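Researcher: I'd like a structural prediction for the single chain below. Treat it as a standalone chain; there are no partners to consider.
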Amino acid sequence: LIFLPGIEVTTSEEVHVLPYFRDVRAALEFGDMVYASLPDIANRPEIFGRQIVMSENDEPVCELPKLLLQATPFSIEDFDRRAQEAGGCAIPAHVNRASFSVLANLGFMPPGLFRAAEVSPNLPCPPLDDALYILHSSDAHQLGDISEPRNLLSNIHNPSEFVDFILNFGIN
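Model: Treating it as a single chain, here is the predicted structure.
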């Protein structure tokens, strides 16, 4: 079991993408860039819930005022490029869902853009390019919703090895 620093973002096409990074610092800096790009629309906690930043000791640090579930001004290609510039990789999230997925919103997987895709369990999945590494995820937003592991990457021991694996998957 390894910890993968990452963030779920919404592109300008309303597609969810998962940028993963080699270390927490890079993920936090990327998150700051994403947050700064969001429109200045206030969160309404009574509707959307509180957006609390927690410390490593699981203590509240602050509450974010901007609504986080907004789309950013960045395209799917922008996020892929920006993640790689930050030393990470980007993976389209829950491609088999009917909302916020690259297949639902664009109708296709942009050719050659990604080396991996994440699919949600218990949902039918259309055929995907054999050149894509498929990650299975619970898309959990609460600890109790995390599913049992379905991916086994026995040669991956840290986030850098994961990022390298994804960036190089399918390259001969």
